[in-house]
Amino acid sequence: MPESVTHLPALLTPVGEPPEDIGSAHPMRQITEAVADDPLSWTPQVAQQVAGFFDEMAEGWAASQSRGRGQEVLQDLLSRSELPTGVVVELGAGTGSGTALLQQHFEQVIAGDLSAEMLKRLPKELGQRVQLDSSALPFATGAVSVLACVNMMLFADEVVRVLAADGALIWVNSIGDRTPIHLSAERIAHALPAQFEVTASTANWGTWVLARSRMKESRLS
Ligand SMILES: C[S@@+](CC[C@H](N)C(=O)[O-])C[C@H]1O[C@@H](n2cnc3c(N)ncnc32)[C@H](O)[C@@H]1O
């Protein structure tokens, strides 16, 4: 587990009324927390249930108002962080609200999602997409520079396996702990091994976490 989480002050402070808490009692929250603690709780039945849930949600997803906030939070993280270059994979890309922004920052972005219906609605110009299950990623060990998760579950073992020695995990919750699929920075740090340096902040009502692997540096020193 990393030593501690560094919390950076917010540059974008919340304005107006807080968003409705659609998250803390949501069935997806229970799955998110269970999987973060115990990857074996992600069974084929749970995977099928989650895929079916998001297949059904896909139709109205891109038009939903709340999606925009995730972009603001992701933008805040990207503009304040030092990130490695190379292959970037977005997990749980949905209909691509974060993918477009990631493409402005990185040369090679692959959008991955479990739900075929979500991926079908990801705009063609956003390029490479892969239907995948983040519990068993179709990437070689150490092959990915950045994994990005916007309102997505954490499969820590696979994150650690596929990230390069100096790789980074980007984590965004568009409305913080009111987001159904949410984990705190401390919980993410707890799920990762000690070589990760974990930084977190808030932007508007959202929260973000950057976990950077420092394996390369510790190997050299
Ligand atoms: C809450 S939505 C977020 C979509 C998008 N990132 C956004 O913020 O608009 C979660 C997405 O994660 C996908 N997902 C859930 N479990 C997954 C898994 N094990 N592997 C890959 N994608 C998964 C769902 O299909 C869904 O598209």
Automatic annotation (TrEMBL):
Cross-referenced Gene3D superfamilies? Vaccinia Virus protein VP39
Which GO terms fall under molecular function for this chain's record? S-adenosylmethionine-dependent methyltransferase activity
Q: Can you give the residue ranges of the Methyltransferase type domain?
A: 90-165
Instruction: Output this protein's name.
Output: Unannotated protein
